[in-house]
Specification:
By secondary structure, this protein is α+β, with helices and mostly antiparallel strands. It has a domain at about 50-165: Lipocalin. The protein has helices at about 1-30, 40-45; strands at about 55-60, 70-80, 85-95, 100, 110-115, 120-125, 130-135, 140-150, 155-165. A hairpin with a 7-residue loop joins β2 (about 70-80) and β3. The N and C termini lie far apart (about 85 Å).
């Protein structure tokens, strides 16, 4: 009989321990202190709100086989309702480290049009370089990415992506 009492006592003790652990776990889940904001959330809160960013288009084109980025073009964009957008080249950077920055009235103005396939295109002032913007969304606030291709004798035909920011025509 003593063995039965001892085994029941062990079962009761184990049940009590399991119950205590379960109650402790539930209590922690219900009353867990608020978590510390992550580093990513803290950095995001320091970034300016998207609505405050000026209209721009930033493009990167990949070298053959998409192994590296070959060239970058950066544009400020003037978008007015009912008018053709104007793309002012802000900077150019190539993979070999060559950089060209433009300011004020020295910025080349790229011409916006639709190509033979009705795709939005911008062309350099001399007409030697064209950037085809597949899926460009004029009139759209916020930031979005569009597929793009550069067509040029100098850069050949390279594919890449452009990030459009606030191309909605609102003055900021």
């Amino acid at each position: 009989m003593t063995a039965r009492v001892a085994s029941r006592a062990v079962i009761l003790i184990m049940s009590g321990i399991a119950t205590a652990i379960l109650i402790g776990f539930v209590t922690l889940q219900l009353f867990e202190p608020p978590s510390v904001p992550s580093k990513q959330a803290a950095e995001k809160s320091r970034q300016p709100p998207v609505e405050g960013l000026p209209p721009s288009l930033d493009c990167g084109f990949n070298a053959f086989m998409h192994s590296t980025t070959a060239i970058f073009f950066y544009f400020d964009v003037a978008v007015s309702e009912g008018e053709t957008p104007r793309f002012y080249e802000r900077a150019f950077v190539s993979a070999d480290g060559a950089r060209q920055a433009y300011e004020g009235g020295d910025r080349p103005v790229w011409v916006y049009s639709l190509d033979a396939d009705s795709q939005p295109t911008i062309a350099s002032p001399d007409g030697a370089t064209h950037i085809v913007l597949y899926g460009l969304k004029l009139g759209v606030p916020g930031i979005s990415e569009v597929e793009a291709g550069v067509r040029s004798n100098v850069f050949r035909n390279l594919g890449g992506k452009c990030r459009q920011t606030n191309l909605d025509g609102k003055q900021r």
